[in-house]
């Protein structure tokens, strides 16, 4: 069949084979913790300040807009992940709904997203861990990349490889560690809120949108405004999609995936709105927006140096949960694409002892380590957003296509008002993409051209469906 018409059957989407199947070891508490661990991280600990610098107090509205778009996407993910309980997330859903070429583009976008998120969070972690590395005598040129006058961001490299090593040991083991670290992270945010409330000053919210609503170029050419901040802060919300990559390793995917995706998204939206509000109430945005660790900075200005140190320590301990969640997702995307033949099949081999794709996990760690060691946080986060927006658009489109093509198929979780919600996810993501810096948009399209070249040179002829897999429709 023509590669344009190749698509997977829903019932055969998992496509496991001997030596290429993942162990079922996870339940819904692991998935909720995976989602919260992925969502609550650099976005709230670090990007709150960057977003506030772009939008002023209106950054709260930026959080709300980005959260609303992600909520639409999360509901679409919940429907598709329970109907197609296979690893691969948006890549697999696109393969079923829209065919192989679209699936490749989305899979490549997810590779871009997850690798860059791991790198961005590693850079954010490094900003909080600088003090510890200086205490042991690490020279400054090993604490920053070339953009900041150093040679390499060594702490970011170390944490990237450490998390990859943990994931290679086993899924359940790393998920259990993740649950413990998530509790520490949420506790630190609770302490932050409790300390900021007594210093809350409503006058800090005036003027509310000093740089306007739409994303418009500022004096230095950088886009500012509520929507510019939303297109960046969007980075702070996604992560629930990493839950869907765990479908094949979930004991009861039809129940647990819905709880994991919707539950983690709802919990994190509430956490973000509260933390953003008390941050602005306790300190003016033009003050804390200049800090790479804004929450720690705010506590220091409120004369809580010891507790600020504890929050920074909690971030150092717990931010790796974000790297863990996205590196987990990245390795599974690589794994499924290799199992489908679009990448070398050898990369999908699962270790018999740990039940994990060790080679792909370590490769993901190396890629994240290189990027985090050399690039700045803001540019990494914006480019990661572009990949995620593409994936979310595909998920919304997949819901619409499958609703129209197979309306009678049973759906464990049905997206409420699906035409509105799925369309909202697509249109919202398109608007956020348009609000990204032009340079980021160009880099994204360049990356896609590279990806398409790989597909037409390798995957189009070697995919499982190209060889007549019985799962083709």
TrEMBL record:
InterPro entries, alphabetized: AA/rel_permease1 (IPR002293)
UniProt KW keywords: Membrane, Transmembrane, Transmembrane helix, Transport
Record's subcellular location: Membrane
Annotated protein name in UniProt: Amino acid permease
Main localization, broad class: membrane
Coiled coil: none
Gene Ontology MF annotations: amino acid transmembrane transporter activity
A Gene Ontology cellular-component term: membrane
Record-annotated membrane-spanning stretches: 31-54, 60-80, 101-127, 147-168, 180-200, 226-247, 259-282, 307-329, 358-377, 383-404, 416-437, 443-460
Source lineage: Bacteria, Pseudomonadati, Pseudomonadota, Alphaproteobacteria, Caulobacterales
Membrane topology value: Multi-pass membrane protein
């Amino acid at each position: 069949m023509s590669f344009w018409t190749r698509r997977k059957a829903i019932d055969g989407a998992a496509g496991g084979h001997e030596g290429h199947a993942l162990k079922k070891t996870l339940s819904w508490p692991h998935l909720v913790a995976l989602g919260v661990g992925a969502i609550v991280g650099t976005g709230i600990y670090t990007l709150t300040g960057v977003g506030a610098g772009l939008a002023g107090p209106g950054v709260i509205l930026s959080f709300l807009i980005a959260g609303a778009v992600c909520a639409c996407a999360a509901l679409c993910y919940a429907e598709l992940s329970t109907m197609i309980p296979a690893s691969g997330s948006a890549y697999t859903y696109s393969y079923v709904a829209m065919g192989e070429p679209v699936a490749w583009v989305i899979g490549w976008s997810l590779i871009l997203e997850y690798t860059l998120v791991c790198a961005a969070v590693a850079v954010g972690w490094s900003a909080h861990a600088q003090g510890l590395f200086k205490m042991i005598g690490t020279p400054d040129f090993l604490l920053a990349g070339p953009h900041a006058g150093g040679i390499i961001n060594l702490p970011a490299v170390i944490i990237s490889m450490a998390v990859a090593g943990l994931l290679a040991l086993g899924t359940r083991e790393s998920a259990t560690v993740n649950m413990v670290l998530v509790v520490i992270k949420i506790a630190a945010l609770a302490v932050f809120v409790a300390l900021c409330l007594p210093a809350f000053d409503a006058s800090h919210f005036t003027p509310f949108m000093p740089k306007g609503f739409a994303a418009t170029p500022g004096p230095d050419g950088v886009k500012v405004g509520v929507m510019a901040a939303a297109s960046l802060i969007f980075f702070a919300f996604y992560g629930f999609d990493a839950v869907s990559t765990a479908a094949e390793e979930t004991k009861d995917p039809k129940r647990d995936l819905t709880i994991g995706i919707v539950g983690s998204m709802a919990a994190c939206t509430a956490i973000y709105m509260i933390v953003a509000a008390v941050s602005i109430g306790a300190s003016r945005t033009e003050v804390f927006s200049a800090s790479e660790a804004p929450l720690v900075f705010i506590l220091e200005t409120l004369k809580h140096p010891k507790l600020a140190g504890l929050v920074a320590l909690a971030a150092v301990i717990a931010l790796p949960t974000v790297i863990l969640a996205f590196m987990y997702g990245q390795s599974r995307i690589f794994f499924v694409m290799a199992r489908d033949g679009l990448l070398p099949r050898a990369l999908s081999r699962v270790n018999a002892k740990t039940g994990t794709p060790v080679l792909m996990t370590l490769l993901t760690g190396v890629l994240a380590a290189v990027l985090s060691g050399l690039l700045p946080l803001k540019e990494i986060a914006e480019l990661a957003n572009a990949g995620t927006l593409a994936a979310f658009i595909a998920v919304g489109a997949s819901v619409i296509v499958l609703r129209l093509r197979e309306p009678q198929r049973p759906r464990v979780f049905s997206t409420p008002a699906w035409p509105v919600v799925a369309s909202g996810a697509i249109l919202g993501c398109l608007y956020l993409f348009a609000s990204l810096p032009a340079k980021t948009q160009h880099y994204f399209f360049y990356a896609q051209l590279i990806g398409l070249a790989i597909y037409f040179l390798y995957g189009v002829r070697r995919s499982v469906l190209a060889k007549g897999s019985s799962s083709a429709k």
